[in-house]
Design goal:
The protein is of the alpha/beta class. The chain has two domains: 13-245 and 361-422, Rossmann fold, CATH 3.40.50; 249-357, Dihydrodipicolinate Reductase, domain 2 (2-Layer Sandwich), CATH 3.30.360. It is built from 16 helices and eleven strands. The chain has helices at residues 23-36, 46-49, 65-68, 89-96, 101-106, 108-112, 140-157, 184-192, 200-210, 227-235, 248-262, 279-284, 287-305, 311-314, 359-380, 408-422, and strands at 13-19, 77-83, 117-118, 160-167, 215-217, 239-241, 266-276, 318-325, 332-342, 348-358, 384-385. The strands form two sheets. A seven-stranded parallel beta sheet has the order 3-2-1-4-5-6-11, sandwiched between helices. A four-stranded mixed beta sheet has the order 8-7-9-10. Strand 9 and strand 10 (348-358) form a beta hairpin.
Length: 437
């Protein structure tokens, strides 16, 4: 990627718009405001808590990432979005039940002032939800124009210099690319004909990219992973990235699987099941939406373990993923993994994992980091797919001729090396050796 503009500290406000203002978005927004008021710390955010090594280990240069890279500051962020429910952010956060009431009371005045715009929604694509606060239009193209008006108005009314859009809404039904997705001409024609091959998430993405606004996809939906919108992103100098925030069980897989492969430990099978009771769990209770999520989650191990290179270790391992909707659990998801391994001389071993995580707590700092990094990418002239942000995704977008990189540690190295490259620092390969008397 070519750096077209010198990275400098941005001026003015950055508006972060989220299609979907439920558990993830409200946890993110309430969290940022809590940090701004000194009520909590931004734990889990690489941009706020992380450091980056520069030069040799003996140089002792390890600045905070937020001091090294000219990112927008938390005080410069403005929030908005769309939802199918009319609740303001405080009401939505209370219903989501992710954050404790005491914390929400501390930022209630701020959250009550953030109200969602009417959403673009069609229940055919998310069958378990029924929209109430929904736009009406002649076709998808008309609805896209309405979204563009929303973006323009939000920017003007809030005095924003720049916008970024991060998809935080539900998982849509499984879709495959078709001829309607090949070119922007075919895509716009399909929009005007109200084609079922256009999903609501694509309408948001089209509207954003048409205006040159960066778009990050937090769900496993097809959305921007199609030639038409990838071309539109390049044409209008808009960064894009996706898809499906890497939280919970898949995060654990991308931590553990690289370790097993590094030690040449064989895998016979990996069984994963989840129980969760939030809106995401309800949506995924529909088989067609689950199919979209399943495709995202299943691809991880194949690409990390590379069975074509290590057939004796990883050929034909059994991988099963299940998600079960269980209302009493709420946003506190529980992921169980049973991993059947074999080691020296083929002797069997097992690993059992019971990860009691909080989906939105893990997702919120991802939303923050992606918004700040995507804004940076646009300011320095990066456009199209931002593969260096694969670190945050279950099913990262990548160049068509390449396979996706899923190894969390390789992803982190790529992300940090990209930051070094942006600032003209030497990229770290860990090849050098340093000797001491």
């Amino acid at each position: 990627m070519e750096i077209k503009n010198k990275p400098v500290k941005p001026k003015g406000k950055l508006g972060i718009l989220t299609p979907g203002m439920g558990a993830v978005a409200t946890t993110f927004i309430a969290g940022v405001e809590s940090v701004r008021r000194g009520l909590a710390k931004p734990i889990g955010s690489l941009t706020q808590m992380g450091t980056i090594r520069l030069g040799k280990r003996t140089d002792n240069r390890t600045p905070a990432i937020k001091d090294f890279i000219p990112l927008a500051g938390l005080d410069d962020l403005v929030f908005g979005g769309w939802d199918i429910f009319e609740d303001n952010c405080y009401e939505a956060a209370m219903k989501a039940g992710v954050l404790e009431k005491e914390l929400l009371y501390g930022v209630k005045d701020f959250l009550e002032g953030i109200k969602p715009m009417k959403a673009v929604f069609d229940q055919k694509y998310v069958k378990k939800l029924s929209g109430e606060w929904v736009k009406k239009g002649d076709n998808w193209y008309d609805l896209a124009q309405q979204l563009m008006d929303d973006m323009k108005n939000f920017k003007e009314e809030n005095g924003c210099d720049r916008l970024v859009i991060v998809w935080c809404a539900s998982t849509e039904i499984f879709m495959k690319p078709t001829a309607a997705h090949e070119t922007i001409e075919a895509f716009e024609k399909a929009m005007k004909e109200n084609s079922p091959e256009i999903a609501p998430s694509m309408v948001y993405a089209y509207a954003a990219l048409k205006m040159g606004i960066p778009f990050a996809n937090g769900a496993p939906n097809l959305t921007i992973d199609i030639p038409a919108l990838m071309a539109l992103a390049r044409e209008n100098s808009a960064p894009i990235c996706g898809k499906d925030f890497k939280t919970g069980q898949t995060l654990m897989k991308t931590i553990l699987a690289p370790g097993l492969k590094a030690r040449m430990i064989g895998l016979g099978g990996w069984f994963s099941t989840n129980i969760l009771g939030n809106r995401d769990g309800e949506v995924l209770d529909d088989p067609e939406s689950f199919k979209t999520k399943e495709e995202s989650k299943l691809s991880v191990l194949e690409h990390i373990l590379q069975p074509e290179l290590y057939p004796a270790l990883y050929d034909n391992f059994y991988h099963k993923v299940r998600i079960n909707y269980y209302p009493p659990r709420g946003d506190t998801k529980e992921g169980w993994d049973n991993i059947d391994l074999f080691g020296w001389l083929g002797y069997p071993m097992q690993i059992k994992i019971d990860f009691l995580c909080r989906d939105s707590i893990l997702a919120a700092p991802i939303v923050l980091d992606l918004a700040l990094f995507m804004d940076l990418a646009q300011r320095i002239g990066f456009n199209g797919v931002q593969e260096w942000l694969s670190f945050y995704y279950k099913s990262p977008q990548h160049a068509p001729e390449l396979y996706p990189e899923h190894d969390l540690f390789i992803q982190l190295m790529k992300l940090k090396n990209t930051l070094r490259y942006i600032q003209g620092e030497e990229m770290i390969t860990h090849l050098g050796q340093e000797y001491y008397d």
